[in-house]
Amino acid sequence: MPSVDKEMRDMIREAVGDIADEYDSTYWREHVDAKQFPEEYWQDLADNGWLGVAIPEAYGGEGMGMHEMTIVIEELSRGGGQGGIIFVLTPVFGGIGIQRHGTESQKQAYLPKIANGEMRFCMGLTEPRAGTNTLNIDTHAERDGSEFVINGQKTFISGVENADSMLLIARTTAFDRSNPTHGVTMFLVDDPASRDGISLTELDTTVQWFERQYQVDIDGLRVHEDHILGAEDGGLYLLFDTLNTERIGGAASALGGGLRAIDLAVEYANDREVFGQPIGSHQAIQHPLAEHYAKLMAARQITYEAASKWDDGEDCGMEANAAKLLTSEFATEAASQAIQTHGGNGFTREYEVYDIWQNMRLTQTAPVSNEMVKNFIAEHHLGLPRSY
Fold first, then answer.
1. How far apart are CA 205 and CA 362, in angstroms?
2. Stated pTM of the model
């Protein structure tokens, strides 16, 4: 991977911010209300090379790394709407996962299409009974010659209706307590919304997203062995590798959302006058915003550290999880303060901050709860007994 200096990263931030500025709150509100994928926005990112920022040049990408992708996600999220979080499904689950663990034929088939915007991904992991306990998944795949027959159920799966491929996690060998991490396999399932053996049931959620959430029922789905990502029965650690990048990407998205809330609050505090002067001239308005901004700046540093360690091939589990924890909590706090700064206007759609708060609050629960993040840090980095 070529070295990228600060000047280049500043240029990335500015260029991505310019694209985000072209899509205002009205654009995003229309797509949320219609549950419609932002096609123009997505293609704009592809045409300017940002969907392939971390994909090698040999496969049509820019050949940069997770640090640069983190900046892209942060700036898209800070620009408004859901431009940051939609990055996680395709460039991370698809792009990073296949780049790290795919065969050469898989890389050639998928990576150029991810980079040019032709292909979108979703992730089939969460199950009703397993939750965050991936070892307990019920979805299973049985070999039948060169194919696998898959049965099971996934829930809270985002964006299946727009996905060209799903990274589906299933057991290919029954759970064995003496070797619990063995037996999990990752499959690339193309055209998941229209495949025989897959049926979708939309879930009724209140989050202000353009993407829908689904229960995915899998009954007799046949997938060829060539569509295994990584090794049969050896997918769990490869999945964990991908999930670290999910943590980093999600942290960048939350970071950008929290900064957007601060930006909007500052703008409002400078414009809104009460008793003859802007409300932003009062310390009761200034100090909370300054404190939340400082917290987000600190969280940004550990997010960047996680991304840099990942790029360098170092263990980034601590940093990735800490980044997820801190950005989700600090961004939610910042959005709450932005609502308070706006007063009654903070609860209207016109001023956007309440929608930001809803989306930031979600990041404390998804893609993994902050309680599980704390469990990881306590056990693996503080040396405390396993608590679950």
1. 11
2. 0.95
